[in-house]
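Practice set, problem 2.
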Amino acid sequence: MIKSVLAGVFSLFISISIFADECCRDTFILAYENYIRQKRELPSDLFAIEPKIITDKILIDEETLVNPKLGQPISGKLFETLCRFEFINQWEFYKKNSFVPYSYDYEKFVKWRMEEIKLFYLGETKLSENYRSFLILFIEGKEDEFFMSRELYLINAKGNKCQSITRISQYFNVEGNSHHFYSEKTDKQYFIQKDTILSSDMIDLSQPEGYTEKASCIKFHYDEQGMLKID
């Protein structure tokens, strides 16, 4: 049953886009949430982390996601706060599945998810003088298991308020069926999201015939408030 659930999760990630306050239909994934009406506060722990500025570009390949050079582990109040973001704990999907533990009780569900996932602070990237942008790595599952998920979140914060969360890149694998996408940053502060579907027959990720890369038509940027806008 658990495998069926995970297969459903895989299907979800390759077919659904998550938006708030605006919507765009496309064949590629662009998962994000703008906190326009909700006032989501972030604990001071996030801003107290010693800055590790990532200045070149936001681009994470599948090898880096599968075998990441881990940054600073996130724990304590910051970990709990981030795990309570429905965007991160994926409550909207899990609550609809009766096979998932505590899908009927959000508080118990959050505690369960806190045991299932790990979060790491990778660094901070400079997108604007008006807000700060943090890169958070999400890890669920082990490399040798039939299920594995690695996601990179970009969190824009103004003051202590979360303005938006974007799933910038992801590597997802269920029983050999893999999917990878990532976002490239242009020199004009725009992002282009690219999508790669990895074949279930693929063993060596270095073999180009093992995957098909699609030209992405999703282009986006962030406004002065740190909200994601689709171009």
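Problem 2, part (b): a different protein.
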Amino acid sequence: MINYELFKDYERIYDKDNPYVGIFKLEDNIFIIEPNFYTQLLGMKEHHYDKFNLIMNKLIEEIKKNKKVIFTADYEAPVCYKDDFVYREIEDITNPLHIFVEDKSRGSDYGD
């Protein structure tokens, strides 16, 4: 089980059907952090430490606005499926803040 240290101040809800995701409660809102999103979030903390509070505040804003949110690396192939939840990717949080994620996973430009 992943230790979601960034969310230690929120009430954690355990779901035996989804043991690998972090499910948390914020007031009357429920949010789910998938492991792949959490890894991206940690990367943002490392590379944009000076703006990380802005990122976390925007994440909380999304939770309060939408009430039920799943944070995933790929909304077309999430780890967790839940009815009545909205899906958000890291770019949904960072792009409005003009903090852009650099995609280093693309192939080489040199060919074979």
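Answer key, part (b): Strands lie at 11-13, 22-26, 29-33, 68-71, 86-88. The CA atoms of residues 29 and 65 lie 9 Å apart.
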